């Protein structure tokens, strides 16, 4: 064998049989003595909702632009070929890798005995440790990592393997099954088709979408401002501009031949319409308009008009009415059954599929790639986050 390939996956759920997918994969190479000789990782577009984002912290804005598994299969195979595969709780990673390769028509040797499991080995070497990767590494005296990222979890599992190779080599000697898997005759697949995609740094700040407008396109007609306003209405339903919203706004502006300066002027007009509806307004509404101003790239001081409302603004805010059809998607913070019951009690019609008559789709992450959200975008139905939906539901409940 050529050494070890330590793998880790972050997934959209625990059961590959229920359509859960890999959202991030990493491979760390170790030589026979446990020294790290290389590493590789990438986010993946799972083409579905991302599931437990509170655990893996992968956002839909990151995953939606990542490669699909089929795009990187050749790169992954090249990093597994000739090596004993290793993972902490190998059967879990084996199940998901096997399912992904099966989807692209490729057989694998990845049964539950084909990989060296550091969790199982650690139960022999350090029987008093709990079974998690964090607990095993702590017991072994290894440094903390950024847990629940595929790259760092793979590095941590590799460090744990290196520790056991040095302290208890008999517990981690490859078995005949593992050596047979290492010698598997993988087919030659295309490599380097796409670049790996990585997580954004924790302190990453996404540039405002106005900065992404194509400035060199000339104006060839008067812009259809109402068309842009309609997109902007939906974008501001939940008082945020998600990555999908920003893409839609940039696309509309570009198709209309609008330059950055044109769009900024339109945003001022939009905000003025919001303020012109003003009567008397409290601090909450004032903060709301200031937030919309910031989302539009306008400083609150530039509003230049009395900030007062005699009624809540409907522009840029989600308002629900009895009889509205709504759809829920994704793993939400609130219990889905409770939200459904509240919505039904308030007179909303909770549907399982999206149609042109759907008022709104509420998602755990508004950039989700779930089928429901994809259908909503295709039909022009707004997709808002859970917090915006809960606020609108509370207002309807009175």
Automatic annotation (TrEMBL):
| Annotated PANTHER family | DNA POLYMERASE III SUBUNIT EPSILON, PROTEIN NEN2
Q: Which Gene3D superfamilies match?
A: BRCT domain (3.40.50.10190), Ribonuclease H-like superfamily/Ribonuclease H (3.30.420.10)
Lineage, top ranks: Bacteria, Bacillati, Actinomycetota, Actinomycetes, Pseudonocardiales
GO molecular-function term, one example from the UniProt record = nucleic acid binding
**Span of domain Exonuclease:** 3-170
The answer to whether the entry has keyword rRNA processing is: no
Q: Which Pfam families match?
A: RNase_T (PF00929)
Question: Transmembrane ranges?
Answer: none
GO CC, sorted alphabetically, is: cytosol
Which of UniProt's keywords are assigned here? Answer: Exonuclease, Hydrolase, Nuclease
What is this protein identified as? Exonuclease domain-containing protein
